[in-house]
Automatic annotation (TrEMBL):
UniProt xrefs under SUPFAM superfamilies: Carbohydrate phosphatase
Name of the protein in question: fructose-bisphosphatase
The organism of origin for this protein: Sphagnum troendelagicum
Family: Belongs to the FBPase class 1 family.
Residue ranges of the TM segments: none
Any matching Pfam family: FBPase
EC number from the UniProt entry: 3.1.3.11
PANTHER family from the UniProt entry: FRUCTOSE-1,6-BISPHOSPHATASE-RELATED, FRUCTOSE-BISPHOSPHATASE
CDD domains linked: FBPase
Lineage: Eukaryota, Viridiplantae, Streptophyta, Embryophyta, Bryophyta
Length: 379
């Protein structure tokens, strides 16, 4: 069945130079982001490498199961990108009105629900997923047999959606926990989705913006793919992404300045005035859409942060910290490395600081950077 699926999958990619897929390279080069095939690093302008083609040659960490799963996630993200770019009437016709949510969670927008349904359907039909947890679901869901567990935020930044501002999908993939096999449901599902971030085997985000870009890692570096609408494929566009060691941009909702602790206030005061370690004046950029703010930070360097306990450990902080670390950066809650935190609650929220190694180290040296009081904000 798997072989048939892959054949079908590859026949859909006939537009591409499939050199990398049909004859896997035997030599690998050690790149800063890990081991990657020589043929992928050296592709000529004429060669277009699809994400599936790339993953098929990425080395031993991508087995057929993960390849199939990643293909389904790509399909879901293409689908979400198409829905986001559609007129509102069409979007409304896709809405499942039976959806409900627990009172303690933010009310979802219609597109949150649609994106959630698309992701769930894609993951279920992959046949590779035992359990999922979504930011839009109250509890973990057990799908059945499959080697993987997927956690995701189907549409982050959706409060901006009516203004066509960029949004994103975030996902993290774990292996199923065999020790939990004997547990009754729903504990089995919960234990599987509440793994520490350092156990992630892959993660990624899709950014829906002027281009739809997917950045992924399967444990050996960070790579980006851009959706080529003329052929309907994510093509390899950002090679071995390395987050600059130091940036000159900070990203935070600084209307909250007067609610911040003094350490964070002093840090931001200093980088604004050129009084930080580099003596350079930093610029501010804040889209208020985490994937978009992080994507810019990954490419240009600096910091993307939310000092209040707002972002979720399981769906946002862990997958994004994993990606940032794979790109040579750092993810912290201001005190602890995100990937080492043991989740204690499925929808647990925490402060999050992601970005360039030297910038995060300097920020953390101010000590008092977490906004512990969260008065609640209307917008
Ligand atoms: O209101 P704040 O603190 O600026 O938070 C904004 C952040 O919240 C988010 O919108 C996520 O929150 P939601 O999951 O409630 O949409 C991020 O995309 C964004 O970075």
């Amino acid at each position: 069945l798997v072989v048939e699926k892959l054949k079908k999958l590859h026949s859909n990619l006939q537009h591409f130079s499939l050199k990398e897929v049909s004859s896997p390279p035997t030599t690998f080069v050690k790149s800063r982001g890990g081991v990657m095939p020589k043929s992928v690093t050296r592709n000529s302008k004429e060669d277009v490498v699809s994400m599936t083609g790339f993953l098929g040659t990425e080395g031993s960490n991508v087995d057929v199961d993960l390849l199939v799963l990643m293909t389904h996630i790509q399909s879901a993200c293409k689908h979400i990108a198409a829905v986001l770019a559609s007129p509102t009437e069409l979007q409304a016709s896709l809405l499942d009105s039976s959806f409900s949510y627990a009172a303690e969670r933010d009310a979802p927008k219609p597109l949150d629900i649609i994106a959630n349904n698309i992701m769930k359907a894609a993951l279920r039909s992959s046949g590779k997923v035992a359990a999922i947890a979504s930011e839009e679901e109250d509890a973990a869901i057990w799908f059945g047999e499959g080697p993987f567990v997927v956690v995701f935020d189907p549409l982050d930044g959706s409060r901006n959606i009516d203004a066509s501002i960029p949004t994103g999908t975030i996902f993290g993939i774990y292996r199923k926990v065999p020790e939990a096999d004997q547990l009754p449901l729903p504990e089995k599902a919960t234990v599987n989705v509440m793994q520490r971030g350092e156990r992630l085997v892959a993660a990624g985000y899709a950014l829906y913006s002027s281009a739809t870009v997917m950045c992924i890692s399967v444990g050996s570096g960070l790579y980006g793919f851009t959706l080529d609408h003329s052929i309907g494929e994510f093509v390899y566009s950002h090679h071995d992404i390395r987050i600059p060691e130091r940036g000159q941009i900070y990203s935070v909702n600084d209307a909250r300045y007067f609610d911040w602790p003094s350490g964070l206030q002093r840090y931001i005061d200093n980088i604004r005035q050129g009084k930080s370690q580099t003596r350079k004046k930093y610029s501010a950029r804040y889209i208020c859409s985490l994937v978009a703010d992080l994507h810019r930070t990954i490419l240009y360097g600096g910091l993307a942060m939310n000092p209040r306990s707002h972002l979720r450990l399981v769906y946002e902080a862990n997958p994004l910290s994993y990606l940032v670390e794979q790109g040579g950066g750092k993810g912290t809650d201001g005190k602890r490395r995100i990937l080492e935190i043991n989740p204690i609650k499925l929808h647990q929220r925490l402060p999050l600081f992601l970005g360039s190694m030297a910038d995060i180290a300097e920020l953390v040296s101010y000590g008092d950077v977490q906004q512990l009081e969260n008065p609640g904000y209307e917008v």
